[in-house]
Specification:
It contains 16 helices and 13 strands. By secondary structure, it is of the alpha/beta class. The chain has 2 domains: about 190 residues, Glycogen Phosphorylase B (Rossmann fold, 3-Layer(aba) Sandwich), CATH 3.40.50.2000; about 180 residues, 3-Layer(aba) Sandwich (Rossmann fold), CATH 3.40.50. The strands form 2 sheets. It has a 7-stranded parallel sheet, sandwiched between helices. Strands 10-9-8-11-12-13 form a 6-stranded parallel sheet, sandwiched between helices. β8, α9 and β9 form a beta-alpha-beta unit. α3 packs across α4 and α12 packs across α15. The longest helix is centred in the C-terminal third of the chain and has 24 residues.
């Protein structure tokens, strides 16, 4: 009999969003001598399944129908039962609602992770739902102190039922990177101009239109500047057209989804995030871990992470003029870029350790399943 704990991560889909990347990082990082990781996406396949396959992690695709799909709980029940899952971890409220019933029927503890709170601000009904359902889970994990304060103060969750576990990041080795080769690979010309990087799904919440408007202003002052946009999503065609209408042409490179983001980051002189809705963005953490100076919008956990003027610059969301001014300010000040880059790297290294995150989740899984394992053995 396999004595390892089987841990199932339930995510929205296998597309590469922040919570999906976090779930796959946890699954890949678990000690395989003690844990058997699995991942289930309720809303379709995507490139994440290829990465899981390389790591020999089983995955399940459920293909949820539009609207409320009442077949989801039964499908999840079968997976939990047939795979003899010991604990399940859900990411975001929608996945929890489909999972909590089957898990409780089978006596399986649920660890739920919330990555942000803006959807709860936008939809007050979600606060009511969370107030009802979160007491049913074994533990609610939040990715940042800011998110935790929201759930305590606004949703009314008891502090002892929450645990803050920061996203863990692999620290980059910039000394092993051939910057010239990477820039050539990304289709950047030999103009020698500054390269601005952006990594995110191309969705409304990331507000890449504001970024493009800001870059158009930057480009007027620095015609040799280039913007590299890494990621894919439903707005790609629209954003490509928007960049063309702004007259940016080849100055903006849409390179699509990349599984080697950490390898690309050192090739950027500056990293920019333009979201108007965020939690704790993994791409921003990875950029800081790579020693990149950052400019980002003041949403979610970003102000706490960047600490304006200490580890980068923070600007209001939906304000292309402010974003452009901050980008130009840093591009004109090499010493500030070096100072912010080093400060950000040290901060991420000290507070967002991958091994620390994995150790804390492994501890949660063991504690959550301890009583259940004893009762099963009896």
């Amino acid at each position: 009999m396999d004595k390892r704990l089987t841990i199932l991560q339930v995510i929205y889909s296998f597309k590469m969003g922040g919570s999906e990347r976090m779930a796959s990082t946890i699954a890949s990082g678990l000690d395989r001598s003690r844990f058997r990781p699995m991942v289930c996406g309720i809303n379709g396949d995507g490139p994440l399944s290829d990465l899981l396959q390389k790591d020999d992690i089983p995955w399940f695709v459920l293909n949820r129908r539009d609207g409320k799909d009442w077949s989801m709980p039964m499908q999840l029940y079968r997976i939990l039962r047939d795979e003899r899952v010991d604990a399940v971890q859900t990411h975001h409220l929608g996945q929890l609602l489909y999972t909590i019933g089957p898990a409780r029927l089978l006596g399986i503890p649920v660890i739920h992770t919330e990555h942000e709170y803006y959807t709860f601000l936008q939809r007050s009904r979600n606060q009511w739902i969370a107030r009802w359902v979160l007491p049913l889970v074994w533990k609610t994990v939040v990715v940042g102190d800011d998110v935790g304060r929201f759930f305590v103060d606004r949703v009314g969750i008891a502090p002892e039922r929450l645990e803050v576990i920061h996203q863990g990041i692999v620290m980059a080795r910039n000394d092993l990177v051939d910057l010239t080769a990477i820039r050539t690979e990304l289709g950047l010309d030999s103009s020698g101009g500054p390269v601005i990087g952006h990594v995110a799904r191309l969705t409304a919440a990331k507000d890449q239109e504001t970024l493009l408007r800001a870059f158009a202003r930057v480009h007027q002052s620095l015609p040799a500047a280039r913007l590299v946009m890494v990621g894919d999503g439903e707005l790609r065609d629209r954003l490509v057209g928007f960049a063309a209408n702004l007259g940016l042409g080849e100055s903006v490179r849409f390179v699509g989804f990349r599984s080697d983001v950490q390898r690309l980051l050192p090739a950027f002189d500056l990293f920019v995030l333009s979201s108007h809705e965020e939690g704790l963005p993994i791409s921003l953490l990875e950029a800081m871990a790579a020693g990149r100076p950052v400019v980002a919008t003041a949403v979610g956990c970003i102000p706490e992470l960047v600490s304006n003027g200490e580890r980068g610059l923070v600007v209001p969301p939906r304000a292309p003029e402010n974003l452009a001014d901050a980008i130009l300010k840093l591009l004109s000040d090499e010493s500030a870029r070096a100072r912010y880059g080093e400060a950000g790297k040290q901060h991420v290294e000290s507070r967002f350790s991958l091994s620390e995150m994995i150790n804390r989740y492994e501890s949660l899984y063991r504690r959550a399943t301890d009583g259940r394992r004893r009762s099963c053995a009896a």
